[in-house]
Predict the structure.
Amino acid sequence: MSGRDTVLGRIRRALADVPRTERPEDVQVTRDYLRVHGARTPERTADLLATNLADYRALVHRCSAGEPAELIARLLAQRGSASVLVPDGLPPEWMAAVRGPVRITDRAASTPQELDAVDSVVTGCAVAIAETGTIVLDGGPAQGRRRITLVPDHHICVVRVPEQVVDSVPQGLERLDPSRPLTWISGPSATSDIELDRVEGVHGPRTLEVVLVTE
């Protein structure tokens, strides 16, 4: 018996007592699961986000509202970035201290090869989820097209705390428009598909740096 036969057999047995005329909407499903796992202050929620991001091997930096420009400039310098992609709507004050790298705009005409040549990209985000250590982008202001955060090898993402940070996935979903192009990021891109060897940078940036700006 194949694995397919085994799975289909289990499905048939599970559905054996279900009337053939029954439709999914005929059965009320109880959805009384927890929306949030524990009570937290905004400060503890931000701490949990930082911890879970670090567990996913993202590099986490924290600063106050007046400091992101200097921090971003330092991160780009440490990386040795000669070019940085800046999407429309990125607050200009975030890049005010950046002097060296050539700034590249987010263009629909950019080819994958051109994006691959970009050293770094700096974006904002739509929401950050503490319990899962997840950053969500929706293509809104300061985020740009989805591909600009998937092709370049280095992504700096700025998260405003506490405005953009929620505890749980249900809370995050309430802030998102499902019709927008959503990108869910939990750490740098990685896969262990081949012999369980972790390889980073396969489906996105090899290095993710998250700047938590406390407002």
